[in-house]
Design brief:
By secondary structure, this protein is mostly helical. It is built from two helices and no strands. The longest helix has 100 residues. It has one domain.
Amino acid sequence: MPFLTSPLIYVIAFLLATNIISGIGWKWSATNAEAERQKVVACQAKHDAFVAQTQAAGKLAAEKAKAQEKEHARISDATAKGWASAIDVVRADYAQRVRDAARRSAGGSGLSAPTQDRPGDAQASTDAVPSPARVAADCAETTITLNYLQSYIERIQHE
């Protein structure tokens, strides 16, 4: 074999070695690329799970806020209606007492004579001070208003 001279053998051995090294390098880089691809897929799956979890938490928070808003509206409405009902009762009671007093004092002539002030009643003066019955009705109305406002604030604070 005359063509297999010493330099040619070295060239063939060198090329064979470079091919083997290139093949090993290619296999190593392919393995690393596959590992990196798997890491990217795992990272994307974690990200997708995080996004889904965050969206679910956001939806729950929005629903909770909406439910709380509805509850506050219901409490406000119940408070307003309850307050109005209680005020109506106080006003109706006051009106009924005024009618009863007017019936008792009516003599039948159509116009009643001015009554004499009793010693315990407030005496007429130039000051326009309301009657004790009117002051009592106003106080009852104010008390009911304040009681309903206080209960409304307590209900809102306990939520």
